[in-house]
């Protein structure tokens, strides 16, 4: 990682994050909840397992597209707003809140560039907007059911340079 870059690693149960130049830290609380929501490429297909209650709200516009708004309720966690394209049914936007010392802060993820992968449409681009900034992820290739070594999910040790400043 270079200065200003961030990385989040999540294995389905636990994870860690790093924003250079700060050292990596384990995910806890709302950060872990956020990683769980963002990690599932098939989130729209698993929506009934994630939420105990789904409530339809009045339609909204997302950019220039008409969208159905569904509010997802999870016990003990803030609700999640899900915006589905009226034409295609694809998830366009997800808005959820993370609990911080300053209160609940919103995070918005917009999905685009859907492509068919083994018979399922998957977003190849998503933009995440948080109070601290915005980032865009563009996937050039997505593979399914690929075996990944457990060591890839381990939090890295921070080597030290002369002068005591850690680096990755």
Oligomer: single chain
Gyration radius from CA atoms, angstroms: 18 Å
Mean pLDDT: 83
Instruction: Provide the structure class.
Output: mainly beta
Shape: globular
Q: Order of strands in the sheet with the most strands?
A: 4-5-6-7-8-9-10
SSE run: EEEHHEEEEEEE
- Please give the largest β-sheet: 7 strands, antiparallel
Instruction: Give the tally of β-strands.
Output: 10
Task: Give the termini distance in whole angstroms.
Answer: 6 Å
Q: How much strand content do the residues show?
A: over 45%
Helix content: under 10%
Low-confidence stretches: none
- Supply the number of helical segments: 2
Give a quick precis of the structure:
The protein has 168 residues and is mainly beta. The protein has helices spanning 29-39, 47-50, and strands spanning 6-10, 15-19, 25-26, 53-62, 65-74, 77-85, 91-100, 103-117, 120-130, 133-138.
How would you explain this protein's 3D organization?
The chain is mainly beta and 168 residues long. The protein is 9% helix and 49% strand. The protein is built from 2 helices and 10 strands, in the order βββααβββββββ. It has helices spanning 29-39, 47-50; strands at residues 6-10, 15-19, 25-26, 53-62, 65-74, 77-85, 91-100, 103-117, 120-130, 133-138. The protein has a 7-stranded antiparallel beta sheet. Strands 1-2-3 form a 3-stranded antiparallel beta sheet, with helices on one face. Strand 2 and strand 3 (25-26) form a beta hairpin. The protein starts with 5 loop residues before the first strand and ends in a 30-residue tail after the last strand.
């Amino acid at each position: 990682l270079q200065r200003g870059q961030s990385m989040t690693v999540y294995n389905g149960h636990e994870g860690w994050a790093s924003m250079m130049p700060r050292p990596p830290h384990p995910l806890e609380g709302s950060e872990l909840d956020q990683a769980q929501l963002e990690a599932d490429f098939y989130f729209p297909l698993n929506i009934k397992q994630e939420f105990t209650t789904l409530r339809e709200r009045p339609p909204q516009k997302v950019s220039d597209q008409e969208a159905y708004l569904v509010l997802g309720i999870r016990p003990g966690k803030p609700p999640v707003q899900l915006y589905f394209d009226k034409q295609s049914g694809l998830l366009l936007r997800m808005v959820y809140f993370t609990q911080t010392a300053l209160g609940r802060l919103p995070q918005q993820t917009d999905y685009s560039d859907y492509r068919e992968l083994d018979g399922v449409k998957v977003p190849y681009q998503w933009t995440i907007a948080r109070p601290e900034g915005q980032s865009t992820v563009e996937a050039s290739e997505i593979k399914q059911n690929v075996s990944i070594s457990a060591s890839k999910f381990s939090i890295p040790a921070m080597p030290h340079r002369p002068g005591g400043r850690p680096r990755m």
